[in-house]
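Lab meeting notes turned into a lecture example. A postdoc, R.K., suggested we walk through two folding results consecutively so the class can see how the record format repeats. The first protein's sequence and structure tokens come next.
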Amino acid sequence: MSHIINHRLNQFSWAVAAFLLLPLLFTKGMFFDGLTYAAIARNLDEGLGTFWAPHYTPYIHPTFYEHPPFSFGLHSVFYRLFGDQAWVDRIYPYTLYGLSILMLRRIWVLFIPAGHRAWIPQLLWTVTPTVLWVHQNNMLEAPLNAAVLAVVWLLIEGTFKRNYFWSALAGIAFFVAVGIKGPVGLFPIVTLPLLAVFFPEHRKAAFISLLTMVVVFSSLFSYFYIYQPDFEKFFDGYLNRQLLPTLTGNREHSGSALLSILEISKQLVIPVAVLIILSLRRKAWYTLRKETIFFFLIALSGTLPFLFMDRQHHYYFMPAMVFWMLGFAMLFEQNAWPWAIQRKRWVKRITLMNLSLWLVAIALTLYYSKSPSRDRHTIKALTEISQEFPGAHIQVSQLENEWKLAAIGARYSKIYFSNAQQELYLASDEEEGPIGYSLIMEYPKAKIRLYKKATP
């Protein structure tokens, strides 16, 4: 009966993911960073820009040096397969969610013989708020999380099995992780030193595995830097325009260590609450396992560096969350209750719940398929403008204050905004009409108006 219950709970973890993710599948509208990345990937598929010189708009990052291009390249493959559809921007991160879950479950099996209980970390990670938000909004942390999990899984697999081919693959995955978001993807390198400390029987194998990964990563980086001029040019641009200014505090200042600690605490509310409830039920605290400490320390290595930066956002901490949840899950798993429920009626209850979640998820997906989930009025207004003026270049008063508008226009309408004088001018309702222009379109719900240069 215990295995049947866990089988149903494994199905339940996927049903919860469907309920939380599927309803937004066919909707438009995302956080503007996600729209930006989608526009760059779509441009790449259409031949605007190249892999090592990604293109955003003619006026904003004509060559995009803000992040390495690996995610944009992978995303562009989805456009090549499915066409320029809005739902591709959901399918891409949702696919990465599924890959992340498969690797998370494989890591679990390497440490916990009870593989049928892998639903515990999966469910904990799925309901973590920032994890949902990242995958719903096409953020770079979605592919970064998958790459980081791949590195950790392959390193542990290669070490435990003494098969260093896995470790070589980890070197490739490590190169991809760094190629998605730069130094943010470096923290998995602590995996094998920590493994050697907590599992001394694997110490020698861990050293060989780490050496193999570093050699493969270094070889790949050296090859591209020496023999690929476009890579060298991009790397120098990324280093000098984005990375060094960010590390020296000369870019955007946002957030604080205190706010970040509060945000991390909010993400950990659910596992901490579960721990308290199970401890009360058990009438004793759980024993801290070395596996839990191992994963907590990996999570800390992906969390602490951001607390010393001038630029902090809640989604920066998302790739570390999977290791927090693995640590908590391995803590919970040591107790038989409630994973070994022996009541037949629970099988029926969970089965019914799974079916209900899937039916509701499908119904909501169909219901929301005709409506943008956010910024609907702006999306509708810019779509109408693009139908009247395809590929328009439009002037705004202060482009630096219109990043979201620029992202929506670039992704959904192929409209490009500029500070330079253009034939068309877009103004907010609160802004006075420009001199020498005539009002031609007005969108009260979007709170914008379109003007055209008057004919002399």
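The second example is placed directly after the first for contrast:
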Amino acid sequence: MRVIAGIAVMIAMLVPLIAGAEIYRWKDENGNWQFGDRAPDAQHEAMDVKGPAKLGQDENVQQIHQRLQRLRESEQTRQKQEQQQARQEEQARRRHMVPMCKKARERIKALNRPFVYVDDDGSRRDSLREEAEADIAQTQQWIDENCDDY
């Protein structure tokens, strides 16, 4: 396996040398065209042979690279827009939640002081400590779930 890899590397190194060499063309005594890197004694003509395009530098590869670059830029723009939209949504959520969180914290303070419950029918009754503690726990749970750091 290493021998094959070594041969492949040697051939790859020789290609530029061959591509840059002068090539000669002539007709032999049978009328067949012959090619070589040395001028024969007979009449011959030099040929201008261009080597193959360098790997990764032809026009198609450059077009693919440009399309890939445009795709990357488009993806980055889309991600920035999504991030900006998420920030705006979070800011709107905060503006909405801040007063509600403030009100919930004030409710907890009020529940820790003596107070009177007013029922739906308008009747008043003293608060029971167990009932107030249940309301405090429920309000605190809502604050923990919804208020983060505001």
